[in-house]
Design a protein that fits this description.
CATH class of the largest domain: Mainly Alpha
Order of helices and strands: HHHHHHHH
Structural class: mainly alpha
Strand content: under 5%
Number of strands: 0
Shape: elongated
CATH topology of the largest domain: Ferritin
Largest sheet: none
Bound molecules: fe (iii) ion, zinc ion
Distance between the termini: 87 Å
CATH superfamily of the largest domain: Ferritin, core subunit, four-helix bundle
Length: 199
């Protein structure tokens, strides 16, 4: 019985040794082997906060690149202006985020946000596929989807900042949250009073 267990143990370590030597295409498996995954995995609320801050930093920077395309595509002058104003506001938000990073002793950096990539891609699709009133109203809808994403992120982030005792970060994130809510309200007003009225 004991010999059998030892035989199984030897077979197991041979299998492990083979697996260690074979290259694995999954980068996570590679990291795990090198023992680096444990170190890179997020564990604490502070990790979650820092990661999500990098996510929204990436998103705001992606929007700086995407908003001019939306402004160009918009035919209605108020909608065009809304996109242009929001570009200026987004740049301001990035400066505030720089200060948030600083307040928690980290350097400002982004980490790919798949959600914003998807939302921007969807918006660019509309620009290709729609025109006239359809394009105008769908652009507003797409912009509102983006504002809602941002509102969700900043709402979460500022509460985490508070729990973590990062009061300065809490205040600055609340300031951005208010800007996003105002931007969303402006889009709603535009949709209801300007764009959706039958010609
Ligand atoms: Fe923003
Ligand atoms: Fe994201
Ligand atoms: Zn609060
Ligand atoms: Fe926004």
């Amino acid at each position: 019985m004991r010999a059998e267990r030892q035989r199984q143990k030897r077979a197991h370590s041979r299998r492990c040794e083979r697996a260690r030597q074979e290259p694995n295409p999954d980068p996570l498996v590679e990291l795990h082997r090198k023992g680096e995954l444990e170190n890179s995995a997020m564990k604490t609320l502070k990790d979650a906060f820092h990661h999500t801050l990098k996510d929204i930093y990436y998103a705001e920077n992606a929007l700086v690149k995407a908003l001019p395309k939306a402004a160009k595509a918009a035919g209605h002058k108020d909608l065009k202006k809304a996109f242009e104003d929001h570009l200026a506001e987004t740049k301001e938000q990035i400066k505030i985020l720089d200060k948030v990073f600083k307040s928690i002793g980290e350097k400002p950096e982004g980490e790919k946000c798949d959600a914003i990539e998807g939302l921007i891609k969807e918006t660019e699709g509309l620009i290709d596929e729609a025109e006239g009133v359809a394009l105008e109203v769908m652009l507003v809808g797409a912009a509102q989807a983006i504002e809602h994403y941002e509102i969700a992120r900043y709402g979460t982030l500022r509460e985490w900042a508070k729990i973590l005792g990062e009061d300065q970060a809490h205040d600055m994130l609340s300031q951005i949250l208010d800007m996003e809510k105002a931007a969303n309200a402006k889009l709603t007003a535009l949709a209801v009073h300007e764009l959706n009225e039958p010609a």
